[in-house]
Specification:
Layout lengths: L7 E3 L7 H6 L4 E4 L15 H13 L1 E5 L5 H10 L3 E2 L8 H10 L6 E5 L2 H11 L2 E5 L8 H31 L1
Parallel strand pairs: 1-6, 2-3, 2-5, 3-4, 5-6
């Protein structure tokens, strides 16, 4: 099901092809914070991520969209010089819509980037944006997130198996 399928699946935000995003008409990035840009429960921004944010900010409008509400996310957003929508309640659309309004962009001009299928990918797909799922930076997480990650892994595995079977069928029909 397309709702559960990211447009792209990558190891890290630093693997995102920024030229391809620009070519696709993407002008804004709605980026998750915890386990996407930095490991959960830390305020230490990895140098590679800091360099990536600097590079991205020169080419795109960027807004952090986080379900987290602790003061730490505000501090990190300030340190990165990025606007923040906290308490997002992803995958509900409200925070994503608020972030797009803050950036002055339409859905078709935005990509949602995050590490979770049930928050970032589904939220972005519900809005009709391009979605990029990255591997989480840490395996430490809240109990409910760890449970969702098990379900997420099962869905992603089934999706890969379905795609492989379809590709094999297409190859034999040619």
């Amino acid at each position: 099901m397309a709702l559960f399928r990211p447009s792209q699946r990558l190891a890290s935000v630093t693997d995102i092809d920024l030229d391809a995003l620009e070519s696709a008409g993407i002008r804004g990035l709605l980026v998750d914070l915890d386990n996407t840009l930095l490991p959960r429960d830390t305020s230490v921004i990895p140098p590679a991520v800091e360099a990536w944010i600097t590079s991205v900010s020169a080419r795109f409008r960027v807004c952090l969209v986080s379900n987290n509400w602790h003061h730490r996310v505000q501090e990190v957003a300030g340190e990165l010089g990025l606007p923040l929508v906290a308490k997002a309640i992803k995958p509900l659309p409200f925070a994503f819509i608020k972030a797009m309004r803050m950036l002055g962009l339409r859905r078709s001009q935005c990509a949602v980037i995050g590490d979770q299928l049930f928050t970032d990918v589904i939220g972005g797909n519900l809005l009709g944006t391009l979605t990029i799922m990255v591997d989480p930076l840490s395996h430490a997480d809240l109990i409910h997130t760890l449970l969702l990650r098990r379900l997420e892994a099962r869905i992603m595995k089934e999706d890969r198996a379905t795609r492989a079977a379809r590709q094999s069928k297409d190859a034999t029909c040619e």
